[in-house]
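INSTRUCTION: Work out how this chain folds

Fields: amino acid sequence; protein backbone structure tokens

Chain under study, with its fold:
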Amino acid sequence: MSDNFDWNTEADDWETAKKARVAPRTSKRYLRPIIAGLLLVIIVGVVLFVQAKRSLDEVESAYSADILSSYYLIKSSIVEGDSELFKTLLSGSDFDWATDQQELFELGLLMDLRPLGLSARPLESDVVGIDLNPELSSAVVTIEQHYGYSSSNNQNPSVILHDENVFRQGERWLWSPPKEEYWGGAFDDFVVGDYLTSFF
């Protein structure tokens, strides 16, 4: 007999064929498209999120510029004494508040804190922040204003006050009174004294 003859029979290949049937190749074939699909969904999601965030930032930036323009118009109307311009920038949502602001404007006390011993340093004011609400219909503008006061030792120290102004969107951004939530809700109790009324 020849040494080149292969004496393997079908019975010898039985174990190999059994193992091949236990681990089918079809599962690997479906795994690749599923992973590719998941990666595609993740990439599309990230791209959409970045574009939405960029669009939201652009809208907030445009709104912030409009709000600041209204703030600077109010400030300039106060400095120049232009009562007509000032009235057009006030919100009519609270008639009493609007009337009080107009009276303070006429008396020249709206931004003037000299009765409290403070003199404004107009070149030393900064916009600290603009907080828009989620609906983009109102905002709180926080201004950091520097004031000087006279002390007994002839120094002119500085005081920094944060001025928060509420704006609501109407035809344009209008200066508005803060809502009740801004003050922490309604006052339940109060005590009236000779010189002071305390709410708590």
Notes: Helices lie at 14-22, 26-80, 83-88, 95-107.
